[in-house]
């Protein structure tokens, strides 16, 4: 009876070790997936910022194409710039608009 108990305890200990090992492996895999998800989120956020920074602040669709003088802000597309007398960033009176295309 004593040997049977010892054998059962040994079997249970091995099963517990195996389960713990599996859980540790799964936790490691999940941590790796979480880190990959964080990296993707960071990359997507950077892409969103670039898109936002290069998109017209008025229509939020077309690319920025006009430099306002004298303030030197670049914040609008050509179409929206025609409607403006003042810079939408700092409200400076626009004396000149220079059109360009970002490469």
UniProtKB/TrEMBL annotation:
GO terms for molecular function: zinc ion binding. Residues 2-50 form a coiled coil. Transmembrane segments: none annotated. Keywords: Coiled coil, Metal-binding, Zinc, Zinc-finger. Residues 56-91 form the RING-type domain. This is RING-type domain-containing protein.
